[in-house]
């Protein structure tokens, strides 16, 4: 069994590698070749936080399949290195043996923006060059890196509840990427006339309004991951071409979709398609330059398993791992 730390995940799993794996993963999901029981969770009794677990199996037409589960706590404690702590456990498909235990926070940090980049590649206008990011945490950095790999980004606007965090992000990103990055005081200022908008916040109530979006904008809404929270308002769901990674998951756990449905502004069949259906050629994706598109994800276990498996395969090739003998012969 291999134990792969967060440091090694970051060395082993590049954004490009993860995007390539997720393209095949999304095809598998939309082809019915993924088993994904709904994520289970409960609130921790003594602190503000949750424990969640996500089992699954992905049978990929190209590349190795992945069998396992993700086990994580989400505990928002000030000054903590990360609020996401846990592991992805991989099993060998034929024997059922545990083959790897991989730090999960780093997998999440890489696979979430990589998935958004795949969706953006398919749904954003080819000439898109202006990017707005709402939130200034780890996902903001990851989304800037990933989106920059599939679109020629020349201008970035950043907003955060903490203006200090937004300004620090703008200074660091401007230096790193050599482009203009501006910290904005309001969400409306940040998204005005932008081509691509990424919502990467922990907001419990909508922060992004449909009326602020320019025609042709593409939105990646990935911050809300439970039914009780939402980052985008009902009109932003109802009046856009709404795409998802997995229909069943979004209908049950997608806060924005559920709120719009309960408000009566959409119907059950409002979702245009899964991103995997676009990759498979079953749906055209964006239909015009004026259409506003939304990609909504709460994070599916197929992403974690496929990304973790890519890191595992890279570890086997590179030797960057710690071997642990879980079972000893008698």
SSE inventory with pairings:
Elements: E1 2-4, H1 6-12, H2 15-30, E2 34-35, E3 40-43, E4 50-58, E5 66-74, E6 84-91, E7 98-103, H3 104-123, E8 130-134, H4 138-148, E9 155-159, H5 163-177, E10 180-183, H6 187-191, E11 196-199, E12 218-221, H7 234-238, E13 241-244, H8 247-253, H9 255-262, E14 273-274, H10 275-279, E15 293-296, H11 301-318, E16 322-323
Parallel strand pairs: 1-7, 8-9, 8-11, 9-10, 11-12, 12-15, 13-14, 13-15
Antiparallel strand pairs: 1-16, 2-4, 3-4, 4-5, 5-6, 6-7
What does this entry look like structurally?
The protein has 330 residues and is α/β, with parallel strands linked by helices. It folds into two domains: 2-108 and 302-323, ornithine cyclodeaminase, domain 1; 115-300, Rossmann fold (3-Layer(aba) Sandwich). Helices cover 35% and strands 23% of the residues. The chain contains eleven helices and 16 strands. The strands form two sheets. Strands 1, 2, 3, 4, 5, 6, 7 and 16 form an eight-stranded mixed sheet that branches. Strand 9, helix 5 (163-177) and strand 10 form a beta-alpha-beta unit. Helix 1 (6-12) runs parallel beside helix 3 (104-123) and helix 3 (104-123) crosses helix 4 (138-148). It is globular and about 60 Å long.
């Amino acid at each position: 069994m291999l134990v792969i730390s967060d440091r090694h995940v970051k060395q082993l799993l590049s954004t490009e590698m993860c995007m390539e794996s997720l393209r095949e993963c999304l095809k598998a999901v939309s082809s019915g070749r993924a088993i994904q029981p709904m994520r289970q969770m409960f609130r921790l009794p003594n602190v503000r936080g949750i424990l969640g677990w996500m089992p699954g199996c992905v049978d990929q037409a190209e590349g190795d399949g992945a069998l396992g589960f993700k086990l994580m706590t989400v505990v928002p404690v000030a000054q903590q290195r990360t609020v996401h702590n846990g592991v992805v456990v991989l099993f060998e498909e034929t024997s059922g043996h545990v083959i790897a235990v991989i730090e999960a926070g780093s997998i999440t940090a890489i696979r979430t923006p990589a998935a958004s980049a795949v969706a953006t590649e398919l749904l954003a206008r080819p000439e898109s060059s202006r990017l707005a990011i709402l939130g200034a945490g780890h996902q903001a950095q990851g989304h800037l890196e990933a989106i920059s790999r599939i679109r020629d980004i020349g201008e970035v606007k950043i907003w955060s509840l903490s203006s200090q965090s937004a300004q620090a992000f703008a200074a660091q990103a401007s230096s790193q990427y050599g482009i203009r990055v501006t910290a904005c005081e309001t969400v409306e200022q940040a998204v005005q006339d932008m081509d691509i908008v990424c919502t990467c916040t922990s907001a419990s109530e909508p922060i992004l309004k449909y009326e602020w979006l320019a025609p042709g904008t593409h939105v990646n809404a990935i911050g809300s991951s439970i039914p009780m929270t939402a980052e985008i308002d009902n009109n932003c769901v109802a009046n856009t071409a709404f795409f998802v990674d997995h229909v069943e998951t979004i209908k049950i756990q997608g806060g924005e979709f559920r709120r719009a449905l309960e408000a009566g502004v959409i119907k059950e069949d409002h979702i245009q398609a899964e991103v995997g259906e676009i990759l498979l050629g079953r749906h055209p994706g964006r239909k015009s330059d004026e259409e506003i598109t939304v990609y909504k994800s709460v994070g599916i276990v197929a992403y974690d398993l496929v990304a973790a498996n890519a890191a595992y395969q890279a570890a086997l090739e590179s030797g960057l791992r710690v071997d642990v003998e879980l079972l000893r012969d008698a």
